Amino acid sequence: MPSQDDRLTQLYEKHNRAVRAYCLRRIGDDGASDAVADVFAVAWRRIDDVPEDEMALPWLYGVARGIVSDHYRSQNRRWRLASKLSGIRPGVPSQPDWEVVQRAEYRQVHTALQALRPKDREVLLLAAWEELSNEQIAETVGCSTEAAAQRVHRAKKKLGTTFRALSRTGPSPRPANESERA
Fold first, then answer.
1. For the segment 92-119, what is each residue's pLDDT rounded down to a tens digit?
2. What domains appear along the chain, each with residue ranges and CATH number?
């Protein structure tokens, strides 16, 4: 059995890129490196809690999810403070995934995705971008496998309905308010 340090090294080498991509897509270059470091610091402190099989990555995503949420809460507090100090309402910051999207259809999908509730958006992103199974999504968000499957199914239906509605009325692209993220 490997030592705790060896195990953390193996986890880092195997999953660093996936965790970094997860963080980059959600908070961009500014905070991703710190978030990744925090994820693996938690993994180091809780190495005995980290699953040894294919469930290690969803466990790490679950930790990253909490760290990203903390990042947004902290960022929102800073924006509110800056707003109070300057008397100006803060603008919505540019999102990294929004900047990548260039084609009209992709913008429409992105707009439909942003119109979903944060919990629906998160399970879709875990299924599509992170390519997690329902079991892995359940581990990441802290629910049963059946509940995760239902959440993904319902979120896909909501995305389709929203996309079709936007197709009829035309998109009004706007990034989601950061305070809606959780």
1. 555 555 555 446 667 788 888 889 998 9
2. 1-91 (1.10.1740.10), 94-182 (1.10.10.10)
